[in-house]
Design goal:
Elements lengths: L1 H15 L6 E8 L12 E6 L18 H9 L13 H10 L33 H7 L2 E8 L23 E5 L17 H27 L6 H22 L2 H5 L2 E3 L2 E4 L4 H16 L9 H4 L10 E6 L2 E8 L6 E9 L22 E11 L18 H16 L11 H4 L10 E2 L2 E2 L10
Length: 448
């Protein structure tokens, strides 16, 4: 009950931060305490870019409505001198994560660039810095970051992930490794190094104009310039253009990406759905989706029935049926939405196929679904109809609502049975001896 109460109050705060697309949610969930009296509270930290005290109702704003954040302030503690360590993305986050001024880790500068500009840059939060996430991780917390990172990704190669959140104390990451800039919106003017980009574009135009002038002069006989020289100048101009446009011309593709742990999931990201994706991930991470219930009270005789009200029957990733234990009546209803085509027919199994199929031509979809009362028909031999069961429509509707609610708890996860994961990889093969000549035996006393 305490966990549910925490979840109920944490999610609205995440919803309030949605209008500010540049937000960072550091979501930290507790593991099981190692001792019975250990107290490890759940911790939720929300960091939003460009959010000032004047933007929130709890600090006096009477034009923007932020009721959920205002409620948190009313029920908790409202700080009036709790200031960010820097007015920019990268240094403020570095200080927030480490508890140290950002210049102590080289994550700030007095002039020039004061924030990271590229995912492909080699700068970032040094590996020797200790974040609060790492400290909490060492104390048994499960740590996750949903949202914006902007502390760098790699150092020397594309996959070293030296600056990545997973290398700084987080067990899970979903979000933007960089930040949200104008470049991420195709309809807005450029932002990353806009002044330098304008200069380079000007130099390119000036160089192109010069080359065209030389070419026209050479063609018309105004200049004594060889065709080879004009071609060489044109080549130099093209190389100059390619050298800067290969980065600045594709800022949206290089910087505006979403990652889940070490994998890029969207490149470039689609702004129209970014906020909803992050909200869904954040709520999913906050809420231990745990499908099971403790059977200890039932086994000890303290309860007469299991705490399960609904059970969902899956075949692979396809929900085929749902079961409802109606506690007020004692009835156990089961609704079949899909069933395998058994072989031979009526056998209740797929003897000719080994494993029954979960989808495709080998299953039958039931519309309306099949309904059984397992308390009276445990073998599911007599499907009920509206004529034989007065509660037919009510039961179908109640189970359908539970299925819909259950589906809201689902979120995308890496598929461990994908072809790339299932394939045998020789470099992952456990081996006794020298691969591929793996062979050993253990004696009766346990000695290999």
């Amino acid at each position: 009950m305490r966990s549910a109460a925490r979840r109920g109050r944490a999610a609205p705060a995440a919803r309030d931060s949605l209008p500010v697309l540049l937000f960072l949610c550091l979501l930290l969930k507790t593991c099981e305490p190692k001792t019975a009296n250990a107290f490890k509270p759940n911790i939720l930290l929300i960091m939003a870019d460009d959010l000032g005290t004047g933007d929130l109702g709890c600090y006096g704003n009477n034009t923007l409505r932020t009721p959920n954040i205002d409620q948190l302030a009313e029920e908790g503690v409202r700080l009036t001198q709790h200031l960010a360590a820097a007015p920019l993305c990268t240094p403020s986050r570095a200080a927030f994560l480490t508890g140290r001024h950002s210049f102590r880790s080289g994550m700030d500068a007095s002039n020039g660039y004061r924030a990271l500009q590229w995912n492909a840059g080699s700068g970032g939060l040094p590996e020797n810095e200790t974040t609060f996430a790492r400290i909490l991780q060492q104390h048994g917390y499960a740590t996750g970051l949903i949202g914006k990172w902007h502390q760098g990704v790699n150092c020397a190669s594309r996959g070293d992930h030296c600056h990545h959140p997973l290398n700084h104390g987080f067990d899970y990451f979903y979000g933007m490794p960089f930040t949200l800039t104008n470049d991420c919106d195709p309809g807005r003017p450029p932002e990353v190094d806009a002044a330098l980009r304008a200069q380079l574009w000007g130099y390119t135009q000036f160089l192109a104009l010069g080359i065209l002038t030389l070419a026209a002069g050479q063609t018309c006989g105004f200049f004594s310039v060889s065709a080879r020289a004009v071609t060489g100048m044109a080549g130099v101009g093209c190389l100059f253009f390619i050298s800067w446009y290969s980065s600045f011309g594709f800022v949206r593709r290089w910087n505006c990406i979403l990652m889940r742990n070490h994998d890029v999931t969207e490149q470039p990201m689609v702004l129209e759905k970014t906020a909803s994706l992050m909200l869904k991930e954040a709520v999913s991470y906050i809420e231990r989706v745990i499908d099971g219930h403790s059977l200890v009270p039932l086994l000890q005789g303290a309860e007469a029935r299991s705490a399960h009200e609904f059970l969902f029957h899956y075949c692979g990733q396809h929900l085929h049926a749902a079961r409802w234990h109606q506690k007020d009546s004692g009835s156990v209803w089961k609704v079949h939405y899909t069933t395998p085509q058994f072989h031979p027919e009526g056998a209740g199994a797929c003897y000719g196929r080994g494993v029954c199929p979960c989808s495709g031509e080998g299953v039958t979809h039931h519309r309306p679904p099949l309904l059984f009362d397992l308390s009276r028909d445990p073998s599911e031999a007599r499907p009920l109809t509206p004529d034989s069961e007065p509660l037919y429509h009510a039961v179908i509707a109640r189970v359908g609502a539970a299925v819909s609610e259950h589906r809201q708890t689902l979120s995308p996860v890496p598929q461990q049975f994908s072809m790339s994961n299932i394939l045998w990889k020789p470099w992952l093969q456990p081996c006794c001896g020298h691969f591929p000549f793996c062979s050993c035996h253990e004696d009766g006393d346990g000695t290999p």
